């Protein structure tokens, strides 16, 4: 699928992609704070637009004569303290336009004491040419070396020292990344993070999405498409840009839904890394399941470490009532797929006319510590069920095909014909089940007649135990 050049998928935006950039309140807040030379703190999940914002600061010259230095500290040498300062400070000097080869009086520091001297000297040089300096430290949470605490202490110290050493008013820092400050330095009295002005990067609004969709369609159509994109993404920057990139001048709202299906087939960069982190901590997955099941939990990440972690991953935010919610519908759908891949034991294939009796059996299976996949429980309104269904067929361990008084239903027949072969090819149990309402001689697909049946019309042998046997391979008796 070719993407439109109007949009940027993955990686920060540069000056070449300025037309794609969506200006948010955060842009104005950052400029306001930096003009006052405040420290700025941006803590956001991956692919929220942090580095794109910094790039815009650099190429738009909105800060006038202020020099902006950008360092992704994850690429610095973390071997030891000396290597850290050598790589970090060399990049600061080069970007600030200060000679690194001895023409200036500034030498590369070897430790935190010399780090303070370095910052004093660089602030002095910048002030001497009537400029100011902003040092952006991106991925700051990745800084790990001996005496890293000393590095942070100096940042706090020079902020506190601005009244006595006014030269430091010419220097400020932007601290950017996806991290918990308390994990880096837990003493508030020496931490630079709690004196910085924190700026949040809000998701795009539907109006902002419509604005940059208007580059490929008429304004009225752009508004309709934007509403549907927003329905799925809630304005999450990466997801929004990706969906928009898959649209063209002839696209409709229905096409947006179809592109969501395509997203789950082509996405390798966004959801997979998030789900990999979920796999490490099952407690996080359990918490998200509670939210998916509709449990009302107040959103209070400052006091709840589980919420703080999930917010930092980007999975949750607060709703209008102040409760936790899954951040957008694509995440909801992705989580349903992820959770289903890992936990469901049996797919319940049934005629909708038999749903009441099938639900009773499903509840009995849950009592026996099995997790059945039932459409009514697992398909939220407004989400495309086809991809979820496909994922279950590809991953689930067994299928129970229910037949009641009305026989095989139209959609049920389609499920059987389209998906049953997948179960057979993978060697998974296919368990035909006669419900209590099934006629004496039910009309059955010919390929099901050769399977051993579970008959709920009879009490002996116990049909529930036989069904559990078929699902697990172990006779519960």
Keywords for this entry:
single chain; 4 domains; 19 helices; Rossmann fold; 477 residues; alpha/beta; disordered N terminus; Arc Repressor Mutant, subunit A
Structure description:
- With 477 residues, the chain is α/β, with parallel strands linked by helices.
- The chain folds into four domains: 25-198, Rossmann fold (3-Layer(aba) Sandwich); 206-266, no CATH class; 271-335, Arc Repressor Mutant, subunit A (Orthogonal Bundle); 344-472, Toll/interleukin-1 receptor homology (TIR) domain (Rossmann fold), CATH 3.40.50.
- The chain is 45% helix and 11% strand.
- The protein has 19 helices and twelve strands.
- It has helices at 25-35, 50-60, 81-96, 112-128, 148-160, 181-184, 206-213, 219-233, 237-245, 253-266, 271-280, 282-292, 305-313, 329-343, 355-367, 375-378, 385-395, 410-425, 463-472; strands at residues 40-43, 66-72, 132-138, 171-177, 197-198, 316-318, 324-326, 346-349, 372-373, 399-403, 430-434, 454-455.
- It has a five-stranded parallel beta sheet, sandwiched between helices. Strands 9-8-10-11-12 form a five-stranded parallel beta sheet.
- Strand 10, helix 18 and strand 11 form a beta-alpha-beta unit.
- Helix 7 crosses helix 8.
- Mean pLDDT is 86; it is low at 1-5.
At a glance:
This protein is of the alpha/beta class.
Describe the secondary structure blueprint for this structure.
Elements: H1 25-35, E1 40-43, H2 50-60, E2 66-72, H3 81-96, H4 112-128, E3 132-138, H5 148-160, E4 171-177, H6 181-184, E5 197-198, H7 206-213, H8 219-233, H9 237-245, H10 253-266, H11 271-280, H12 282-292, H13 305-313, E6 316-318, E7 324-326, H14 329-343, E8 346-349, H15 355-367, E9 372-373, H16 375-378, H17 385-395, E10 399-403, H18 410-425, E11 430-434, E12 454-455, H19 463-472
Parallel strand pairs: 1-4, 1-5, 2-3, 3-4, 8-9, 8-10, 10-11, 11-12
Antiparallel strand pairs: 6-7
Helix pairs in contact: 3-4, 4-5, 7-8, 8-10, 12-14, 14-17
